[in-house]
Automatic annotation (TrEMBL):
Belongs to the DedA family. It comes from Ideonella lacteola. The keyword RNA-binding does not apply. The chain crosses the membrane at residues 27-49, 56-82, 122-144, 156-177, 189-206. It is found in: Cell membrane. This is DedA family protein. Residues 49-174 form the VTT domain. It is a multi-pass membrane protein.
């Protein structure tokens, strides 16, 4: 419970935690950034780390000169691409047997199934769309590996999605993160970054399941 409370506080108040870390440890913040982004995108049991809000806050800190924008973008892009490659490899190794895994504290089967439904509906584009959606961001490369997508095709979507995600969200923070209204409503903005994409995933998964249920089963005798 203490770990969950810490993670919740980290996600909602990532701006303050990051500011404190920069003040206390300086350049070590870049190593921490790389680690968080890599783990969130590269380890299928860690979908709850602060991705979007972290990028936005990093951009805001770069905007006031506390961090270097070019270095931050390069490190986070590299971590996002490398993390997805790791996650894809894990999915490719475990293969279809993942559907037999039970829900546990280390594996969220419902999130996996939602990501799988999303992938079945949208294919490789899921890897680009998923970059902007918590949980889907973690499970999409894993699902692509389970589905045996070729490495070459996966890498194209991985690099494209990583560049769009890291670039757009970080630069939004750089340009708008220090606007007084944004600073005053940052917690609400972070909640919106979490809840709105989550609702999109849920609606997409429900529609995919309904469509699958409405499709007549093939006659085995045919």
């Amino acid at each position: 419970m203490e770990l969950l409370a810490f993670l919740f506080d980290l996600i909602i108040h990532v701006d303050q935690h990051l500011k404190d870390f920069v003040a206390n440890y300086g350049a070590w913040v870049y190593a921490v950034l790389f680690l968080i982004i890599f783990v969130e995108t590269g380890v299928v049991v860690m979908p709850f780390l602060p991705g979007d809000s972290l990028l936005f806050v990093v951009g805001a800190l770069c905007g006031v000169g506390s961090m270097d924008l070019t270095l931050s973008l390069a490190l986070m892009f590299t971590a996002a691409v490398a993390g997805n490659q790791s996650n894809y490899t894990i999915g490719k190794i475990v293969g279809p047997k993942v559907f037999q895994w039970e829900n546990s504290r280390w594996f969220n089967k419902q999130a996996f199934l939602k990501a799988h439904d999303f992938y079945e509906r949208y294919g490789g584009v899921t890897l680009v769309i998923g970059r902007f959606m918590p949980f889907l961001r973690t499970f999409a490369p894993f699902v692509a590996g389970v589905a045996q997508m070729t490495r070459r095709r996966f890498t194209f979507f991985d690099v494209t999605g990583g560049a769009l995600w890291v670039g757009s969200v970080t630069l939004m923070g750089y340009w708008f993160g220090n606007v007084p209204w944004v600073q005053h409503n940052l917690e609400k903005i972070i909640w919106a970054m979490i809840l709105i994409p989550g609702l999109v995933i849920l609606v997409g998964a429900i529609r995919a399941r309904r469509k699958q249920a409405d499709t007549p089963a093939a006659d085995p005798a045919a």
